[in-house]
Specification:
The complex is a heterodimer of chains A (about 220) and B (about 950). Chain A is mainly α. Chain A is about 60% helix and about 5% strand. Chain B has a five-stranded parallel beta sheet with strand order 10-17-11-12-13. The longest helix of chain B is centred in the middle third of the chain and has 19 residues. The chains are: A mainly alpha (about 220), B alpha/beta (about 950).
């Protein structure tokens, strides 16, 4: 199993069950013992994972990646010690960011349920042109990528979180806005799109949105 | 070692000596004297009770007598077989009064009636792997060893550093049991010296082991001050130059050129005083807490006796006499050497030499191959489908390795409470034979269907434990290892409670995962018995012949029009081997051998397939052919760097060492008549562009210098070097050159020599060389008729192309990267592909020959079988879920996934033979239709969940 096998599902699951930080260890870049260089995939996933954490109000530094060789015990120890110290400084997950435990769990579960979509976006929209550490950094820090991520991930994360809420029980626009700390108008915009797509249904009597029949 | 003991075709006779050898190659009768252990090997479980209760102290030889052991020992904690023995200090044996051990041994294994017995074995061939001994500096009084408690040897220090050492890895000095804060290493103790009792040769390994000890010391004690006194730094091994730089750049580490004298010790502190010369401050005295003598390698104490018993010749240094053409053979046919009896060599050379000796035995005994082989038979596998997991947890002490930090008893108690666990227990060494048997018996007796071994990294012993499960009738993939050693006890040795908690966490995660394990089937693939050897130099030819002589067909593919490679340009080695005669002989043998097919002017168009079943398309002399082969050997050699400095290519008086050697062999008037020659070493390597040492050039320079002196003793020869790296026995030639007035002057890389065209006093054209002498602190000016450059050895031009065709990795310096630099030096991570010669790294001809035999030996372990087993831990597609997006196909670097037309249309499908189980495809598949067996999403998620869940 290669470090590139660590997908967003696994990473988000770890936060969901309550880990305050996740550190991915991979082989040295460009020194793959095979021909796969999958550690670059791990690096890409880390950038995307950090972006997702930030979108739901969690500190992206809680997700880290370090590259080292099997003979580099010292480096591993330093990496783990450094990362642990940093996560300790950040404080407990959610609490430090001022997000309630339940709310955070919901948000993480919602984002995790989007993993299939995120995989498609990564493949279609987020192809990194250059396989170097610097190249990855440049790509994920660029305005163009930020814009793409906003466009392709941002809206969907919100919709995903709304659908996740509705999976429990029907909610009004105002309730949703309250739960997700969004403006009612923003929620209304997403509800319009989602209704058109048939992802949600509106019940006029109770003035609440719910998932269409059969999808609750 | 465990594998050796468990191999059905290897019988281990420990504590034994060869007393007589009769017969000849193919039919030896060997008498072996088995010394009495006073312990029945078949009954002893290695539990150590006898050692605990033995009242008689006796030197612990394995730990270099730093601390006493007992008269009953287990030689070291991972000894194979793990059986105690009683030495001559035993009170019962010497005075007939004690017998305590007999009382405490619950297995009644102690037997004082044992006597030495002699067994006779009939064998076809003998391999001598009798090893080397560290030099004993007590022989030379000046070193103060044994006189001053804080002067120790590198071997002593090695034991101090070891977790299984006398102080469990703490570095404590003998005089007061304190951590030394200031440590000095003195290089070349016992080596490179002509003083009585020492060795004239270079031991080759001490520079690197000293650097390793410095790095480990700094890891143990970040504040330690480390000083290495050295002569030339001999970092001529692969990646060694970088390793040296890593050690030298650590804070608080000094490398000081020069040999210090041991001036004495301070009576109050027992600190050791060293006296040494400095460039600016004259002679200086400095005090150290501990002095480590970096001792060299000596022939093992018994090597003379063994040589006598076997009727072998030894060389002047006491190592086996071998021939140039066969560095693995001895003076007696049918007897081969591997390891330290060849001379002072490092681990990779020992490893490939051992494989090479195996290959030569194969050549000798091929006609009887397989007649005595035994195959392991496993009981039929119990069908566990649909059954509740019944998990057994075995927590290993690993001697002190784990149990001294982790409270294994409480880990066991804890494991018992975990879901699905029906059995949990401790074991002293889970990998020991008795423990293995215990696991096997319990698996059957308690109906276990999953086993968690809480011990070391799966890297080391997972294969062994999987095999144990098979022997118990369980699917091998029902084994899960919880690493509580490398990832727990070793790293948290100072936090025992936290380490115990972490061990519990790790075990809990493994138990969770074990519940998700599925039975998997590896499968057998047929093996095509032909080998493709790429490259027809000495490496390729030697390897091809070694395989063909064992009856296996070889296709030898050479890119140029004739065989021989780089060796065509070398006429003799430093030791005097006639290289051209050897090449001619090998070329003749290649063409005569009916099983070797040679393609000249060939290039490889494509490679497909996998271990045992490759198909390679070769184009040669206008013809394209498809070759099917089971193994491939990469022997593509190396090229010579074309210098872009020192007027090379501009002035005809500037040559490379290779060109000078060629012209000397032809007795070319211009070179033979030269009155003065200056050689410049390290041209094009050991610099920022090529951060490695080309290994061979120092010896080449000395060889050419001696040849020049032979042709005309009056020729003045000066070698400008950075570090002379004439390692091993080649050191003697370096000394001979110096004795013959070859001048050696060192230069610093930041002050490289300057070469310019000039006119001498007679008005004839010549060259003028200016170089700063770091010792004299002045500018030297030399005039020379010729300048010869030690041009770097560089990866051959075809390296990248071959690497991409065979999907092989390259190391940072551009040479092929082997599977493991020390332990698997002739194999690639890609199964079925092997490596030898300069394609691996620059090396001398005798090393190349050895490595070529080594590659043949490794290839034989594949070819000798009719089938090869493929892993069951591969990916598979759940076709109804596949949306034909192709993401997995793009993700797979091995081309293991393809679309195929199924009943429901086009779907992805994995070829399990090509799949390496990296699982990248799973990360990309949007519908999770592709799953990786053994590392399934569910099993990994369960582990992540269990990482926080508390019972």
């Amino acid at each position: 199993m290669c470090s590139g096998r660590v997908d967003l599902d696994l990473i988000l699951k770890a936060f969901e069950v309550g880990h305050d930080g996740v550190l991915i260890g991979g082989c040295m870049l460009n020194q793959c013992n095979y021909v796969t260089q999958g550690n670059y995939d791990a690096l890409g996933n880390t950038y995307i994972g950090r972006n997702l954490l930030a979108r739901i109000g969690l500190n992206p530094e809680r997700l880290g990646i370090e590259f080292m060789s099997g003979g580099d015990g010292k480096r591993l120890a330093d990496a783990v010690n450094g990362f642990s110290a940093n996560v300790k400084k950040l404080g407990p997950l959610g609490e430090a960011e001022g997000i309630g435990r339940a709310e955070m769990g919901e948000a993480l579960a919602a984002v995790r349920s989007m993993t299939p979509w995120l995989k498609l976006v990564e493949r279609e929209k987020l192809r990194v042109p250059e396989r170097t550490e610097e190249g990855y950094h440049r790509f994920f820090a660029s305005e163009e990528t930020m814009r793409l991520m906003d466009e392709w991930i941002g809206g969907t994360v919100t919709i995903g979180r709304i659908l996740h809420l509705l999976r429990r029980k029907p909610h009004s626009t105002g309730e949703i806005a309250g739960f997700l700390k969004l403006s009612p108008s923003e929620v209304a915009r997403h509800m319009n799109t989602s209704s058109r797509q048939g992802w949600v249904a509106y019940d006029i009597d109770s003035r609440r949105y719910s998932l269409p029949l059969g999808q609750e | 070692m465990v594998e050796v003991l468990r191999h059905p075709n290897i019988e281990v006779l420990s504590y034994s000596e060869v007393s007589r050898v009769e017969g000849s190659a193919g039919d030896f009768r060997v008498s072996v004297t088995r010394k009495p252990r006073y312990i029945d090997e078949d009954i002893c479980t290695g539990c150590g009770s006898c050692v605990k209760y033995c009242p008689k102290p006796s030197p612990d030889l394995f730990n270099r007598e730093i601390k006493d052991g007992k008269a009953v020992h287990i030689y070291f904690s991972q000894a194979i077989p793990l059986v105690a023995y009683i030495d001559e200090n035993c009170l019962e044996l010497t005075e007939g009064k004690c017998d305590i051990c007999r009382g405490v041994c619950q297995n009644k294994a102690i037997d004082f009636r044992q006597t030495a017995e002699t067994v006779e074995i009939r064998v076809g061939a003998i391999i001598l792997s009798t090893g080397i001994a560290p030099f004993d500096p007590a022989a030379v009084e000046d070193y103060g060893y044994k006189r001053f408690p804080n002067v120790i040897t590198g071997m002593d220090y090695e034991r101090l550093l070891s977790a299984t050492g006398p102080w469990q890895g703490r570095i404590l000095r003998a005089s007061d049991g304190k951590h030394p804060g200031k440590i000095a290493w003195i290089s070349c103790v016992g080596s490179r010296r002509v003083t009585a009792g020492e060795h004239s040769y270079c031991s080759g390994v001490c520079c690197a082991y000293t650097q390793k000890q410095v790095i480990l010391t700094k890891e143990h004690e970040a504040d330690a001050e480390c000083t290495v006194f050295h002569n030339d730094i001999r970092a001529m091994g692969k990646d060694f130059e970088r390793y040296y730089q890593r050690a030298a750049e650590l804070p608080g580490v000094r490398f000081v050129r020069g040999y210090p004298a041991i001036a004495g010790e301070r009576p109050d502190t027992h600190n050791v005083v060293l006296r040494y010369a400095t460039a600016n401050d004259g002679v200086k005295e400095e005090e150290f807490d501990l002095v480590v003598l970096s001792v060299g390698l000596s022939p093992s104490a018994d090597s003379r006796k063994i040589a006598g018993t076997l009727g072998l010749e030894l060389n002047a240094h006491g190592f086996a006499r071998t021939s140039y053409a066969n560095p693995l053979g001895t003076s007696r046919a049918g007897i081969f050497v591997s390891g330290g009896l060849q001379g002072p060599i490092d681990i990779p050379e020992s490893v490939f030499g051992a494989s090479g000796a195996g290959a030569q035995v194969g050549e000798l005994l091929d006609y009887r191959r397989g007649l005595l082989a035994e195959k392991r038979v496993y009981p039929p596998e119990t069908n566990c489908a649909g059954k509740e997991p019944r998990i057994g947890v075995f927590v290993c002490h690993c001697g002190e390795n784990i149990a001294s930090v982790v409270d294994t008893r409480s880990v066991v108690e804890y494991a018992r409470k975990l879901p699905n666990v029906v059995h949990a227990q401790q074991q002293l060494f889970s990998c020991a034979n008795n423990s293995i048997n215990e696991i096997r018996e319990l698996a059957t007796g308690k109906g276990l269907n999953r086993v968690v071994i809480a011990a070391c990294s799966p890297r080391t012993l997972e294969a062994l434990f999987r095999d144990t499960l098979r022997e118990a009738g369980l699917n091998p993939y029902f084994c899960e290892m919880a690493n509580i050693r490398e990832q727990c006890s070793w790293v948290h040795s100072k936090q025992k409670e936290a380490a115990t908690q972490k061990a519990k966490d790790i075990v809990r995660m493994s138990v969770a995962r074990a519940g998700h394990l599925e039975p998997l089937q590896g499968f057998d693939l047929p093996v095509h018995k032909t080998t493709l050897v790429v490259g027809g130099g000495i490496a390729g030819m030697t390897c091809a012949l070694a395989l063909a002589r064992q009856g296996y067909p070889v296709h030898l593919v050479e890119k140029s029009k004739e065989l021989g490679g780089m060796a065509r340009r070398i006429h003799a080695t430093l030791e005097g081997m006639d290289v051209q005669a050897y090449v001619q002989e090998q070329v003749g043998a290649i063409y005569r051998h009916p099983l070797v097919h040679v393609s000249h002017g060939a290039s490889i168009r494509s490679v497909s397939g996998y271990v045992g079943n490759f198909t390679t398309v070769v184009e040669a002399e206008g013809r394209t052919r498809e070759i099917r082969h089971g193994a491939a050997v990469i022997a593509t050699g190396a090229d010579v760097h074309r210098p872009a400095e020192y007027l090379y290519g501009e002035n005809e008086r500037v040559l490379t060492h290779l060109e000078l050697g060629e012209r000397l062999a032809l007795k070319d008037a211009a070179v033979a008549g030269a009155r003065s020659v200056v050689m410049i070493q390290c041209v094009g390597c050991r610099n920022a562009d090529r951060n490695y040492c080309s290994r061979v050039c120092c010896s080449h320079a000395v060889k050419n210098a001696l040849k020049l002196k032979e042709l005309n003793p009056k020729t003045s020869v000066t070698i400008l070097y950075r570090d002379m790296r004439t390692y091993g026995f080649k050191e003697d030639f370096y000394r001979e050159a110096a004795d013959k007035d070859v001048a050696f002057a060192r230069y610093e890389p930041e002050n490289k020599p300057q070469v310019e065209a000039a006119v001498n006093e007679q008005g004839e054209p010549c060259l003028r060389i200016r170089v700063a002498d770091p010792i004299l602190g002045c500018q030297l000016e030399l005039t020379a008729d010729l300048v010869s450059l030690a041009a770097a050895v560089i990866p051959s031009a075809s390296t990248r192309e071959i690497a991409s065709l065979f999907k092989l990795p390259l190391s940072p310096d551009g040479f092929f990267k082997e599977a493991h630099v020390k332990l698997r030096p002739v194999e690639f991570a890609t199964e079925g592909v092997y490596l030898c010669g300069m394609a691996h790294y620059p090396k001398h001809i005798e090393e190349t020959i050895k490595q070529a035999y080594g590659a043949a030996g490794r290839a034989m372990t594949l070819l000798a079988h009719d089938t090869v087993a493929a892993s069951g831990s591969v990916c598979e597609v759940n076709e109804p879920e596949c949306v034909t997006c192709g993401a997995c196909i793009t993700a797979c670097a091995y081309g293991a996934i393809e679309f195929h037309e199924g009943p429901a249309g086009k779907r992805a499908r994995v070829n399990p033979i090509l799949c390496k189980g990296d699982g990248l495809c799973c990360t990309k598949c949007p519908t999770s239709a592709i799953r990786m067996k053994h590392f399934t999403q569910e099993s990994l998620l369960s582990q992540i969940e269990a990482a926080v869940a508390q019972v």
